[in-house]
Description:
It holds the Pfam family PqiA. There is one protein chain. By secondary structure, the protein is mainly alpha-helical. The chain has one domain (2-26, 33-142). Helices cover 68% and strands 9% of the residues. It has helices spanning 2-19, 38-48, 50-75, 84-93, 96-110, 120-144, and strands at 21-26, 34-37, 115-118. A 3-stranded antiparallel β-sheet has the order 2-1-3. Strand 1 (21-26) and strand 2 (34-37) form a beta hairpin.
Amino acid sequence: MLLRLANLSLLVLFPVAWFAPLMKAGLLPLFKLSEISVISGLQSLWGTDVILALIVTFFALAAPYLKTVALALVQFGLLRPVALPALNILGKFAMADIFLIALYITLAKGIGVGRLETAWGLYLFTACILASLIIGLLTKQSLQKPMIGSKDPDK
């Protein structure tokens, strides 16, 4: 039950993390820093590099959310546990480092000189990705354990 609740909470936390500031960037220490989120980074990419924007959209938004929804379907018995290996692969595509590398590329293109500060959204987004991976592993383990008191039909 706790795994189901944790997984369902990711359906709310992922969108929050997408709009939360990942970092603050600015040209000089005297000027105000601009907040950069997953969504603002994607908006910037769509204006400059559509192919990279499509790739980042899949890795940062679609893959983790699809995995979370599919895992919820498995947890509630609406999707067979046979799908777990495919969800594991989808979870690997949802790794935050791929998105962060693309974000740094975008920043490097747009800001030649300046400073960066991490913000709370980076930690939230990273925690969501890691929680999704852990919930997936724990769900797989819980489905593989035999139920206490159940009889093995082969004996």
